[in-house]
Write a structure and sequence with these properties.
4 helices, globular, 5-stranded antiparallel sheet, alpha+beta, 29% helix, 160 residues
Length: 160
């Protein structure tokens, strides 16, 4: 799936999808890593804000990382209330056996960043694909921590 298609999936009724970039300070990076309990690889984070007639629909984030030896890319869509709307796998270059299923990705709907948001705690593991499950959960934790530290405080349009 191309990025434009993914953004349409995230915000099908959007009248505006705005691309934003944040240059994180060292302090923000430390706060995000502490909250996510995962390392951030870049000081620049890009995300997309969907709006319909001036009302905020949500935020879309693209996460790319190495699972074992090959990359995966997914999109996480965050509601204005800081819960996950959904997660969609966009590219997966590891063997198909390790690809997370749509039902497993569906388990993230409505989740928030909390102490239960870990594999084998609040998130079921994927039998035979533990590294994939861990990589997805870590990526989502980074996104939600970034959202809490750098996006949520930003003033924007009213929520829908």
């Amino acid at each position: 799936m191309r990025q434009e298609e993914a953004l349409y999936l995230a915000f099908p009724e959007a009248t505006v999808i705005e691309r934003k970039a944040v240059f994180l300070t060292d302090k923000q990076i430390k706060e995000i890593q502490k909250l996510a309990k995962s390392k951030i690889e870049s000081q620049i984070i890009t995300y997309y804000v969907g709006q319909s007639s001036g009302a905020l629909m949500g935020y879309a984030f693209f996460e790319t990382h190495i699972v074992r030896t090959m990359p995966e890319t997914f999109m996480a869509v965050v509601n204005p209330d800081v819960t996950l709307k959904f997660v969609e796998m966009l590219a997966f270059h590891e063997p198909e056996d390790y690809l997370p299923s749509k039902p497993w990705l569906g388990l993230f709907q409505g989740k928030k960043l909390d102490d239960g948001f870990w594999v084998k705690r609040g998130v079921r593991n994927i039998t035979g694909a533990t590294l994939t499950a861990q990589a997805v959960v870590d990526g989502i934790r980074r996104i939600l921590a970034f959202f809490e530290i750098a996006v949520k405080k930003e003033k924007g349009p009213k929520s829908r």
